[in-house]
Amino acid sequence: MVGAQIWEMRKEGCDRLEIIQELAISVQQFEDCLLAFESRLPVDAARVMKDCFHRDNERIEELIECWMPIALGDGTPADEMSEDAYDLQLKASFAVLGAIDARQKIFMAARPEKTSVRDRSVDVLAWL
To answer: Which of 54, 44, 61 is nearest to 109 (CA)?
Structure first.
């Protein structure tokens, strides 16, 4: 694909004349190829970002599903738990809260129209 070659050469710092001479194309072909390639770039980038958003969200969901039962515990009061069990439950709670924070950041990054801090606040209890 000539457009990809032109794009790569531009990234390497080649000027227009070098590219035209090396690829043996006309100025009009250069302009058309570069324009066509650049016009597809935002669509491809948006597709990749959406895919990453979904994969990150799935990864966070798996983490929450794994650690949430441990974080919530079995109802045993803290003073009756062993130190190791208490420590594990505490660490699981921090992991779940960290995952919720990461999920919130991903959701906010996917919704750039929201600009107010108040709009970005998340009711964690409602989410759970």
So the answer is: 54
Q: How many domains does the chain have?
A: 1
pTM: 0.53
Distance CA 115, CA 124 (A): 20
- Residue 102, classed as helix, strand or coil, is helix
Count Cβ atoms within 10 A of the Cβ of residue 99 and give its class: 0-12 exposed, 13-18 middle, 19 or more buried.
buried
Domain that holds residue 82: 2-127
Distance in angstroms (rounded) separating the CA atoms of residues 20 and 24: 6
pLDDT in tens, 57-98: 889 999 999 999 999 988 888 889 899 999 999 999 999 999
